[in-house]
Design a protein that fits this description.
The protein is an alpha+beta fold. The chain is built from 11 helices and 15 strands. Among the domains are: 98 residues, no CATH class; 50 residues, LysM domain (Membrane-bound Lytic Murein Transglycosylase D, Chain A), CATH 3.10.350.10; 141 residues, L,D-transpeptidase catalytic domain-like. Strands 3, 4, 5, 7, 8, 11, 12, 14 and 15 form a 9-stranded mixed beta sheet that branches. It has a two-stranded antiparallel sheet with strand order 1-2. Strands 6-13 form a two-stranded parallel sheet.
Length: 432
C-alpha cells in the first residue's frame, strides 16, 4: 500500500516544480523587490540617525535600541533614558557617586552695630557692647538691621526692609533666627565678642517673643561663661584685659589701682587663685572692668545681670540671669535703685524689723544667708528704703513671694552678684 506522499499525483507535481526551477531560474516578483528597497532604506536611516548622528553608540544605552515609537510609548523607558542622558552629560563635573561636589557658602558680611531704645522709648534696649568702633546707630531698629542680614527673596532681593516704605516688619521668629544664625557665624569665625553683641542687641528687640528671648539669654550665658567668668581673654573684648602683677600689688587693691568697678573677689574667682595673698611677681591675670547692673523681672522671678555705663542703659550688654524670690503679697517695690554705699556685707547679723528678733553672724537660722547688698531708691523712688538683695536659708522660696520685700537668691549665686555689683555705681531696676 502506498503512503500519501508516494501517490502518482503527488510525485508528478513535485517533478513538474523541479523541472520548472531548472528551466527558468529564480526571479522575485516586482512587488517583493519594492518592499525590500523600502526596508533597506528605513534601516539605513535608523542607523544613521541613532546615537550621536554619526553611526556611533547610542548614549541612551542598549535598553533604548528599540523602535522610536515603542520608546516614546513606554513611560518607564523614557524616565530611565532621561536619567542615563543626565548622568552621561554630568560625568565630567561630578564627584564620586555622580553627585556634584558641595561648595561651602561664602561667609556673608556681618556688620556689628550698637545702639538701642532708651528707657523712655518703651523698650529695654540692652544692646551691643560699649567700646566697639564699628557703626553705632542710635536706635534698636538700626542696630538689628546692621547686625543681622535681611532675608533674601528670588535673585537675592530682600523680602522686606524693616522700616521701609510700605514694608511690614519681619516676624519675630524671623528676627530671632537671623540673629541666631549671624551669631553662630561669628562664633564659627572665632569672634565671640561680635556674637555677644548680635545676640544682646536682639534681646532688646521687643518684637521677639519671650520663648525666643529665653533662648537668647541661654546662648548669651554660654558665651559669657568664657568671656566674663573664665580666665580667657579674647582680643577686642571691651570688658576684659590682661594684667601682669607688679611689685607691691595685692589682689584686694587692684580694683582701686586699676579703676575696676568690681569686687576683688571676682578676680580671684575667674583666675582660679587659691590664696589671694599668694600672687607672684610677673604673674599674668585676667581683669574684668565692669560696672555691672541688675534688672529684676518680678513677673518671671528673674534677675538679669548686665554690664555697661550706669547712665546709658541702652548700651548695656546682657551677661546672665538668676532665679529669685520676692516679697510676700507683692511687697517688692518697683523702681530705680543704686547699690547703697557701705552696705555690702558678708555673713551679716540681722534684726527682724517686725519682731525685733536678732540673728547673729553664722546663725544657721539667719534668714538673709551669707550676703547682703543694700539698695537706695533714685529720684522719685528715694523714699523706698530698707530693701536689698540677699541670700536665703530656704532655697524652696526661690520663685515665690516669701520675703519681707527684698530680693532673695540662692547663696552660691548671690555670692557672684555680690562680687560684680559695686556700691555707689551699680544700678538695680525692679520692674513688673
Amino acid at each position: 500500500m502506498s503512503l500519501p506522499s508516494q501517490t502518482p499525483r503527488a510525485a508528478a507535481v513535485g517533478r513538474a516544480h523541479v523541472r520548472t526551477h531548472h528551466r527558468r531560474g529564480f526571479r522575485l516578483p516586482p512587488i517583493a523587490i519594492a518592499g525590500l528597497v523600502v526596508v533597506v532604506g528605513v534601516g539605513t536611516a535608523w542607523w544613521l540617525t541613532r546615537g550621536d548622528g554619526s553611526g556611533g553608540a547610542n548614549p541612551l544605552g542598549p535598553d533604548s535600541a528599540r523602535a522610536g515609537d515603542q520608546l516614546l510609548d513606554d513611560p518607564y523607558a523614557r524616565e530611565q533614558a532621561a536619567l542615563r542622558t543626565e548622568d552621561a552629560s554630568h560625568t565630567t563635573d561630578r564627584g564620586v557617586g555622580g553627585h556634584a561636589d558641595p561648595q561651602p557658602p561664602a561667609d556673608p558680611p556681618v556688620t556689628i552695630s550698637q545702639g538701642g531704645t532708651g528707657p523712655g522709648s518703651g523698650g529695654t534696649g540692652f544692646v551691643a557692647d560699649r567700646g566697639l568702633t564699628i557703626d553705632q546707630p542710635r536706635t534698636l531698629g538700626e542696630s538689628l538691621e546692621g547686625a543681622i542680614e535681611p532675608a533674601q527673596g528670588p535673585a537675592g532681593a530682600p523680602v522686606s526692609e524693616p522700616g521701609g516704605a510700605g514694608a511690614n516688619p519681619p516676624p519675630a521668629s524671623g528676627a530671632f533666627q537671623r540673629a541666631l544664625t549671624s551669631a553662630e557665624q561669628r562664633l564659627a569665625a572665632n569672634d565671640p565678642v561680635a556674637a555677644r553683641s548680635i545676640l544682646s542687641g536682639a534681646l532688646g528687640d521687643r518684637a521677639i517673643g519671650e520663648e525666643h528671648r529665653s533662648q537668647l539669654r541661654a546662648r548669651l550665658t554660654e558665651i559669657n561663661q568664657q568671656l566674663v567668668f573664665s580666665a580667657t581673654v579674647v582680643k577686642g573684648d571691651p570688658l576684659a584685659d590682661t594684667y601682669e602683677i607688679a611689685s607691691g600689688d595685692r589682689l584686694s587693691g587692684l580694683p582701686a589701682k586699676l579703676g575696676l568697678a568690681i569686687d576683688w573677689r571676682l578676680l580671684q574667682r575667674i583666675n582660679a587663685i587659691p590664696d589671694p595673698d599668694k600672687i607672684r611677681l610677673g604673674q599674668k591675670i585676667k581683669l574684668v572692668r565692669g560696672p555691672f547692673h541688675a534688672v529684676v523681672d518680678k513677673s518671671d522671678y528673674r534677675l538679669d545681670l548686665y554690664a555697661g555705663p550706669p547712665e546709658e542703659e541702652r548700651e548695656w550688654t546682657y551677661i546672665r540671669s538668676f532665679r529669685v524670690g520676692l516679697g510676700e503679697l507683692d511687697s517688692t517695690p518697683t523702681g530705680g535703685f543704686i547699690v547703697k554705699r557701705e552696705s555690702k556685707l558678708i555673713n551679716p547679723h540681722w534684726v527682724n524689723p517686725r519682731t525685733g528678733e536678732r540673728f547673729d553672724q553664722n546663725d544657721p537660722k539667719n534668714p538673709i544667708g551669707e550676703r547682703w547688698i543694700g539698695l537706695d531708691g533714685l529720684g522719685a523712688d528715694a523714699v523706698k528704703t530698707g530693701y536689698g538683695i540677699h541670700g536665703t536659708i530656704d532655697p524652696g522660696s526661690i520663685g515665690q513671694q516669701k520675703s519681707m520685700g527684698c530680693v532673695r537668691m540662692n547663696d552660691t549665686e548671690v555670692e557672684l552678684v555680690y562680687e560684680v555689683l559695686v556700691e555707689g555705681i551699680s544700678r538695680v531696676r525692679i520692674q513688673d
